[in-house]
Design a protein that fits this description.
The chain is an all-alpha fold and 185 residues long. Helices cover 70% and strands 0% of the residues. Helix 1 crosses helix 2, helix 1 crosses helix 5 (109-124) and helix 4 (78-96) runs antiparallel to helix 5. The relative contact order is 0.14.
Length: 185
């Protein structure tokens, strides 16, 4: 097997694995498939973690994950697909960041891994075993990479920033106990 063939096969495997996981994750949000909670349940969760309005947030995240994942797996519109998926995972990582890095403690490890892999594929390209290659890279031009990441970064910064402001404002009214309550005898 030639080096280029190995590279293209490796990119195909990365696209299928990452894109498939993202698409399934998004289908949980949108349709309630694979044990997910659908738009209603995911919308309630999104509201509880500061993404308001919840249904719109669940829909946007679900579309970015399902659409971005499906397009990555197919190798179609790879810059936009990878950037959209990476943006969705940045939003998920923001929720899990207070729990540290590792997934076993509720951390952002999984979201970061999917997001970075999607971003890497957007930058690297889909390889020759892709619809982008078959279509002459009509929706995979070099200028699309910075454009897709700029648009995604701007949108993600606005959404995650608004969430952070909401959470800070909600905490302002709370007062922490100055002393531990203990029964003194």
């Amino acid at each position: 097997m030639r080096r280029n063939d190995r590279r293209d096969l490796g990119l195909l495997l990365l696209r299928l694995g990452t894109g498939g996981a993202l698409a399934a994750h998004g289908a949980q949000k949108l349709f309630g498939w694979f044990g997910g909670h659908g738009i209603e349940g995911t919308g309630q969760f999104m509201e509880s973690v500061g993404y308001v309005p919840g249904k719109a947030s669940a829909t946007a995240a679900g579309l970015a994950e399902t659409g971005g994942g499906t397009l990555l797996a197919l190798g179609l519109a790879t810059p936009a697909a990878g950037a959209a998926a990476a943006g969705a995972m940045a939003g998920a990582a923001a929720v899990h960041a207070p729990n540290g890095f590792f997934n076993q403690g509720g951390g952002y490890e999984y979201a970061a891994t999917l997001g970075l892999t999607a971003a890497g594929l957007a930058i690297t390209g889909p390889g020759r075993l892709s619809l982008d290659h078959l279509l002459g890279h009509a929706v995979n031009r070099g200028w699309m990479i910075p454009a897709a990441f700029a648009a995604t970064a701007a949108g993600t910064a606005v959404v995650v920033g608004a969430r952070a402001r909401r959470l800070r404002k909600a905490k302002e009214g709370e007062q922490e106990a100055l002393f531990e309550e203990e029964y003194m005898e």
